[in-house]
Amino acid sequence: MDILTALLQGLPGFGGMSDQGLFITGAAVMATLMFTVMALCAIVFTWMERKVAGFIQSRYGPMRTGRWHGWAQAVADMLKILGKEDIIPAEADKGLFVFAPLVVLLGSLLAWVAVPWAPGFVAADLDLGLFFIFAASSMVVIGILMAGWASNNKWALYGAARGAAQMVSYEIPLALATIPVIMHVGSLNTQDIVIAQQGGIWHWFILRDPFLFVAFWMYFIASIAETNRGPFDMPETESELVAGYHTEYTGMRFAFFFLAEYANLFLVSLIAVFVFLGGWWSPIPGLDFAPALTFVIKGILMVFLNMWVRWTLPRVRVDQLMYLCWKVMIPVTLLCIVGSGILMITSGAVG
Amino acid sequence: MEGLLFWFCGSLLLLGGVMMVVQRSAVVSALWLVFAFLSAAGIFAVLGGTFLAVMQVLVYAGAIMVLFLFVIMMLQGPVMDGERRLMHPALWPLIAAPPAAVLIMLAGFLRGDRMVGFAGAPAPGFGSVVQVATLLLGRYLLAFELISIILLVALIGALAVGRGERKLPWK
Amino acid sequence: MFERFIPVLLVLGVAGAFSGVFLAISFLLGPRRPDALKDSTYECGIPARGSIQIRFFVRFFLVALFFLLFDLEAVFLYPWVVLYKGLLASGAGGFALTEMGVFLLVLLTGFLYVWKKGGLEWQ
Question: Suppose A242 and one of A75, A247, A283, B35 were both cysteines; which one would form an S-S bond, judging by CB atoms 3.0 to 4.6 Å apart?
């Protein structure tokens, strides 16, 4: 944000603008930029997902569109989906049906607001950044319940109920796993969290103490469940519930769910990066010439890890899912909090 | 700026409240309530209570409403017939009377010099998480610890409600 | 402070506008040929039977209830966590840890009770 306003000030025509005007223009530019990045990441990640899935299953994935490894396949899919018919089932609750995808999409995009891309380059520099991210992404659950209910389809409703139950359950270990990090930082501001990890890979929170190392993996598992992916894709088990809560959606509205899924995937990966993996800092101190690039590359590596897990492990059962969350992850994350707190006292190291 | 945003969020809140009451479908009604909660969070943010605003979204809109939606979806269909009979036009004045009375009293109270205004920017750090935390863990420590007891009671209560008659823990 | 939230509103506006544009494009480009079969509910190709008022597993309700309680617990943890480092630096670390320890211990009792009574079982 600060960088953007400074840049704008340098442009002809913006020099005479008031600070408030500059701030709002900067924020609007940032908002547009974020939407573009989100659309772009959905395109890139759909292609990446199909390639990763292909190689893991000893096949090629898309190969033809655009010559080189079918790179244009996702673009073609996006264009195709624009020309698709938008079917609203006769039995559906029209108003809710129309708005549900927007709620899901806006909920996941809103959380992006507090992501620190580079020093001074964050759309909204909030004091409670991380807290805000969790609050904004909790809106996705409402959108999913809306979609399932509005479809007036038993499978969709059941998928929505499962999705909501799963997402709310895993929200707890997700939030608890980040708490040891905040104890070390003493602030919820996303930039502060990154700044506290300056100085090479051994200063990243994942390697600070054993409890933080465990907390990172707890966060990672919870984040997979939170995005309804991987071994935890209970809400859309295609063999049981057709396609879950978006069974009745077609065309652009379906694309919004799709967009939101990948936006969420990238979001949880980026959170993992800036909370545990050093954010924009490079692993070797002194090589921080492209902070935003470093940040995005780490994010993409996390997304890759996520895809790897998804295409390797078999789907779990609902009872296993709940067992894992309530009887393993919540106690372990609580233990991490207490352990890290005691370790901070005994080591005497503040910071 | 504050004034503009305050009235904007305030009117959205009112809209959410009215729409919630007039809906026939309980699910749509609950979703308008979510809308109203979000607008209320906007008002908190404008007034400087940022921690409260985010908490409002996380707890009320994100957690309590999910519970509400589950309960509504479990218990009844889209339209409640009993409710419809209750909403007979002849009964409307009766239903509208208490809120109207409160509104008139409020308007009388806020008239003139007691009209709500913006007394300037709040002190730096007002409503921030650090300030809330300092109060919560210092001056209101006992209340804070007692909250855990309330949560404990609620946990046991939830268990008793959810397990049904047959499997009550003490049977 | 609230100025910091203006980008949040702007993001909502911009994203809403873009979504509207995309919907409009797809509305203009897409065909519209509704028919009774296409607009019917899709339940594996068999005509949908019965209403959507299916009987829900009470466990969903219970999960939402437990989530609410633990979410509140997490919310109360946050203020403490933000202060913890400062309290540690001023030498009150033990006090801070006890404060939270009592809070967590009470909740842990409830958690263990629910666990023991089978409240966390999904069956």
Answer: A247
